[in-house]
Amino acid sequence: MEAETEANYLKQVDFFQGLNDEDITILMSVAKRRTFRAGEVIFHRDDPGQALYVIKEGKVKICLISPDGQEISLVVFGKGECFGELALLDGLPRSADAIALEKVECYTLQRTDFHNTIIKVPQIAIQILEVLSKRLRMTDQKVEDLIFLDVYGRVAKKLLELAESHGIQGPEGVRIDMRLTQQELASMVGASRESVNKVLGYFMDRQYLSTDRHRITLHRIADLKRRIY
């Protein structure tokens, strides 16, 4: 029963959607399960890239940390998403840090197993290209946002994105289901913590959102959308 549950889960992962039962069985035969504590570093920038990670439960932050400790958060991945694939494809060291935001359960595929699986199941290569293309477009959009949007617009857009990917609908609005400090949000939008604090205060005064123990609930989605541009 557990094997069947895991197989059904892997079929929902972006990289592996559309694969048949035989292909999924090949993947499961080489995948290993790993668990990481909240706050644990999964890998550091410049580490050798030896594994692809598929998240079963929890959330992982991909970020860059400067020599003086300043952090830029690139993306947050959650259940059903993969990370760490670039180093497996090009053989170069990790390009960023990966940190567990909460307890994370995941599957890992070692580089050699990953390559062998692609050879046996070429469809995976096409799936990977589609996911990488989507992520490249997201990177282009982030650069565009930094150029054309003010801090208010960048914060509003990021909160809406997080609500879409990690939101839970409730009676009072959409709650972003992840612990999010002002500093973490600031690192996501390329702004200072003080600027983000000012923006959040502005949005709370107008009842666009509310905060509780580093959890943000969006109440007036349409108003936030209008504030982006």
TrEMBL record:
It comes from the Bacteria. The keyword Methyltransferase does not apply. Residues 149-222 form the HTH crp-type domain. One of its GO terms (biological process) is positive regulation of DNA-templated transcription. GO terms for molecular function: cAMP binding; DNA binding; DNA-binding transcription factor activity. GO terms for cellular component: cytosol. Pfam families: cNMP_binding (PF00027), HTH_Crp_2 (PF13545). CDD domains: CAP_ED. SUPFAM superfamilies: cAMP-binding domain-like, Winged helix' DNA-binding domain. Residues 15-135 form the Cyclic nucleotide-binding domain. Keywords: cAMP, cAMP-binding, DNA-binding, Nucleotide-binding, Repressor, Transcription, Transcription regulation. This is CRP-like cAMP-activated global transcriptional regulator. It comes from Tengunoibacter tsumagoiensis.
